[in-house]
Amino acid sequence: MSLFARKPVTMISKADALPGRAQPIPTAERHFLSDIPLKSPVPEGMAEAVFGMGCFWGVERLFWDLPGVWLTMVGYAAGHTPNPTYQEVCTGMTGHNEVVRVIFDPAVIPYERLLRAFWESHDPTQGMRQGNDVGTQYRSGIYTFGDSQQEVAEASRALFQHRLMRAGRGVVTTEILPAPEFYFAEDYHQQYLAKNPGGYCGLAGTGVSCPIGLGV
């Protein structure tokens, strides 16, 4: 998925980031699979979550397949540049992460179950990369909505770190932050692997299970 052979592996400062633009970039009107308007408000009784765990094409497919997930979308978050383009994010000069925003029904799939999928489906010890995808846009991140999500996310990180240490793995580098502004990615990125079933998916877990959401 990378557009450039060499990527920055340190975060750019706000002062040095690209200026971006005042207006949002165009994106899809509707979800390719469900036909739900992509910019729908969160329905009453549902909640939202945002995750970064490598190339967002495969990450979005991971979450749209989970029962209880109502809507997914890909975009950019946790950087400095307003309304960035994909090409700008790929330079490492915006500070953004490739992320997936998930709207879900907690009565069907609790937040802990989303976190379990997050931890088990990528390697959160790699810093500014996932496998061969190198750059700050591929860092591991959980972006939370409210104190409850923050506390549960931090507890899950501690649990998974313990499991990783027992398996001889490294230190978790996942950032856990209050959800910053989410910028929609371009139309062609939305539900990319539904439109291109044979397309690139860089997701690869560690083989270590995460006990959160299992009642253990």
TrEMBL record:
InterPro entries associated with the record? Met_Sox_Rdtase_MsrA_dom, Met_Sox_Rdtase_MsrA_sf, MsrA_MetSO_reductase
* Record's catalysed reaction(s): L-methionyl-[protein] + [thioredoxin]-disulfide + H2O = L-methionyl-(S)-S-oxide-[protein] + [thioredoxin]-dithiol; [thioredoxin]-disulfide + L-methionine + H2O = L-methionine (S)-S-oxide + [thioredoxin]-dithiol
EC id: 1.8.4.11
Ordered alphabetically, the record's keywords are: Oxidoreductase
Pfam families recorded: PMSR (PF01625)
The GO annotation for biological process reads: cellular response to oxidative stress
Q: What class of enzyme is it?
A: oxidoreductase
**Where is each Peptide methionine sulphoxide reductase MsrA domain found?**
48-201
Catalytic site residues?
A: 55
Q: Does Manganese count among this protein's keywords?
A: no
Task: List, in alphabetical order, the Gene Ontology terms for molecular function in this entry.
Answer: L-methionine:thioredoxin-disulfide S-oxidoreductase activity; peptide-methionine (S)-S-oxide reductase activity
| Entry GO CC | cytoplasm
Role this protein plays:
Has an important function as a repair enzyme for proteins that have been inactivated by oxidation. Catalyzes the reversible oxidation-reduction of methionine sulfoxide in proteins to methionine.
- PANTHER family given in the database record: MITOCHONDRIAL PEPTIDE METHIONINE SULFOXIDE REDUCTASE
Q: What family is reported?
A: Belongs to the MsrA Met sulfoxide reductase family.
- According to UniProt, the name of this protein is Peptide methionine sulfoxide reductase MsrA
Species of origin reads Gemmobacter megaterium
